[in-house]
Amino acid sequence: MEALFSILIGLFFAGAIYLILSKSTVRILLGVVLLGNAVNLLLFTAGRLTREVPPIIPAGMDVLLPGAANPLPQALILTAIVISFSFFAFLLVLTYRAYQELGTDDTDEMRLAEPRQEPLPPLGY
Amino acid sequence: MNTLILRTVAPSLTALMLLFSVFVLLRGHNEPGGGFIGGLIAASALAIYGIAFGVPSVRRAIRFHPMAIAGFGLLLATLSGALSIFFGVPFMTGLWVYPVIFDVELPLSTVMSFDIGVYLVVVGAITSIALALEQEPGSDVEGED
Amino acid sequence: MAANAPALTFFALFLPFLASVLAPVLTRLLGDRAAFVLALAPALAFAHFCTFLPEIAAGEVVTGGYAWAPSFNLSFSWFLDGLSLTFALLITGIGALIVVYSGGYMKGHEGQGRFMAFILAFMGAMLGLVVSDSFLMLFVYWELTSITSFLLIGFDHEREAARRAALQALVVTGGGGLCLLAGLVFLWNITGVTQLSLLVHLGDGLRQSPFYLATLLLVLAGAFTKSAQFPFHFWLPNAMEAPTPVSAYLHSATMVKAGVYLLMRLNPVMGDTPAWVILLPFFGGITLIAGTFLAVRQTDLKLMLAYTTMASLGLLVMLTGFGSAHAVEAAVLYLVAHSLFKGALFMVAGTVDHEAGTRDVTKLGGLRAAMPVTFGAALLAALSMGGLPLFFGFLAKEEIYAALAAGNPRAVFFTGLAVIGNALMFAIAFAVALKPFLGPHVETPKHAHEGPMTLWLGPVVLSVLGLAAALFSGVAHRYISSPMASAITDEKIVIDISTVPHLGLPLLLSVITVLLGALAFWRLTDLRAFMVRAVESLGPGPDRGFDHVVSGLVRLSAAVTRFVQPGRLEIYITATFILLAVTLLVPPFVFGELPVMPAWPEQLLVQEAAFFAIAVIGLFAVLRAKDRLTAIVSLGIQGFAVAVIFLLFGAPDLSFTQFMVETLSVVILALVMTRLRLTPRDHRPLGQSLFDGMVAVACGLGFTLLLLKSTQAPFDTVLTDFFNTYSKTVAHGANVVNVIIVDFRGTDTLGEIAVVMVTALAVLALIRVRAGKRAGSGEGR
């Protein structure tokens, strides 16, 4: 099972990175969302997989049933999902605002911070 | 998206979802659920309301600025953790009390208030983002102060 | 006293810094009179250090300090022996006079408070430097003196020359400081100690170490840059851009002697090796001769003094390098004498400049009537500098000749250097002290008259001390010179030279020096013209070279920046991911750590396989999407598929969260994308697409292999078991995931919700920027 997951996760990573390598901010944004899912699945798989038994202690017991899912990666991923969502929202607004201000979604055209012909710094003292 | 069906359904749907979100939040300690999920459900509910009736009506309905709600949640979560100072135990140690109300033992804890803090932060922050984006471009950002 | 002495010493060490902080406020309140209050700080410290004189004279060593990080052997600890005590007294004593002098010199200057703050901060740094015991403290104070020196040289920061001089001094001495740091690390590694006081007895091991020479060169780089030895001398004359009190204090009496101090301090440990006795006298000798030759060329009083300071430092390094008892005695006497007379002469030059409006020696003359007190101080100081009997300088020079004049050719050579150097310094001393005051009255830019008491107090005290120390040489030797020389050689030395001339070779050499000096003084104008031509014929010196180095560095930095930051985001990202792919793929192949191939087919249930397939389809649909709607929908599809996969594998909490997040994502994505007139179409040419695809696939493969390998390793269940065991019993929660989030790892969650909140604030801010711009002037692009 882990092997299949590994391949699925590899595909997610490849897809996410291919999108992020683009010049278009919208595609980068989509890539970041996919990358978040890829990382979450990676964590999930690394904590080992079990089918269907959630990590919830049944009434009248003090510990999990044997064969229950590993709770630790789930706790990590749960917060990660919410954080990647807020990050996604931020990037989305950034893309949107950048497009409004600069009139482009091509990262090559966004040269405010690093102008194409930057003059030499002053050589005096 | 401002259709008649949505406008008809939205109020009850929002109310139901908000109720459900509180339910999910409170049962979170022993069943699937918790502050993060509850908060997301509540934020979705408000987003739906916003799509149906516009952002100003949502702002009126929740009375407080969403960021104020989030800020209150963060404060609540921090205080829940800091309460342990008065009991001489490390930061974030869970403290429990079991008051008996109407013959029902009610377990209350700083852990629960912390989870409520998480819920409020998520509701406030996500609603704030969603409302900011739902707002028509160019319309005034009144009501954000 | 013994009980509270460490606390008092600690306080004395911090007193100048305290005064530095208070200086701007006090100056605002009291004007130039604040100088008298501020001078109390060094004066009190001076008084405190004076209490150690009897103990140190008895051959004891005073140590103290506070542990800081004992596990790293780091402490704030000081160490007072004859050497550091003499320096501490010079720094605080001359410091107090300089502060008073600055009060008069900077009177009415708007930056007076700032100036006082800087100079007192420097004083604290310098004092700390000479009493430091731990290497770290030494280094920190060392660099602190460089920084305060930078601030003081560049005090008049509106002139480019001052800025250049400040930067030059900082680059040269700061760079030397870094070499010193490396040298100290070597010392620590070789000997295993981090305290100067412990180092003293480890000299033999150090001298035999194969890294001795490297250590020595690094330490010398630090000392030579600080003490302006050839070829690093050029920053010192340029440092004369600083106000004169700074030149008098930092660039003659104290800071430039830090390098000499270091060499003297390390003499017992590193001295007496072939490298030491060759390198130090060699560079010291060159510096001595170069300094005097360059000094003769000058007409500016301060520059003349600056170059002779450089020469004197060369002489000190030369003597320290000789390392014999006599040479060390000579160095000690000369160092003290030099601090006194050079400090006095610099202050005199400043007073003349302040009162007459110029310090060009050819435009000055006949000031003796107008400025009798200053003239008297100048004359006394010059007599000491010239090394005439009755003055401390004379004792020093006698001792120098006694140390050098041995029979062998090497000694003859260095004696010759010393005679020439001293003769020229004699000439310059009197040029500075006599030319402005004697002869016919010359009209100066300002109508000259005697300066206020603040301006002549310092020179008078210092020059009189130069006389008194020689007249009462027994006291001076007992408390100052002998303990200091003993500390430098690490054996008991008693200096007994007095101002009564002894017949012999040293006296003869002294006479020759004075005659030569008098001749040079008589023909100074001719000599100056000759030197100007001679130096010009040598071509540009290291000073010009510095400009080339700096501009070269700026160009290089600009070129490197352009190369590594071409301003194209995709290049940065591509580089990042290529590196990621290499990191993931190379080690498994190189070290043979590839995972074993899994056994096919795996038991995958039908519904699981279905959602796997949906996730993959969604993924590819996102990649291929040609319009907004397809992209949004397919993004949603893969997200929901992932949510279902979480559910199928026992993670209902994750699944719900993912469902909610995907829903909200699709909603807000739709909201924004409808306004963005954009399509997520790929504009990449085919070649670029293929290359990016290769990078992406390589990364994906890397992650697959990594995950396969790590899931094939045995699983460490320590943490899982912990949470499983205590979730119900201790934390009273059945949903272990939730218990981890809100209880076991609550602090993490607190940080995470803070991040969520900050992101929301950032989103609001981004949206508001637009609102502000629209409402504003409308100049937004």
TrEMBL record, chain B:
The chain crosses the membrane at residues 12-29, 35-55, 67-96, 116-133. It is found in: Cell membrane. It is a multi-pass membrane protein. It comes from the Bacteria. InterPro entries: CPA3_antiporter_subunitB, MnhB. One of its GO terms (cellular component) is plasma membrane. Keywords: Cell membrane, Membrane, Transmembrane, Transmembrane helix. Residues 5-127 form the Na+/H+ antiporter MnhB subunit-related protein domain. Pfam families: MnhB (PF04039). Its main location: membrane. Belongs to the CPA3 antiporters (TC 2.A.63) subunit B family. PANTHER family: NA(+)/H(+) ANTIPORTER SUBUNIT B (PTHR33932), NA(+)_H(+) ANTIPORTER SUBUNIT B (PTHR33932:SF4). This is Multisubunit Na+/H+ antiporter, MnhB subunit.
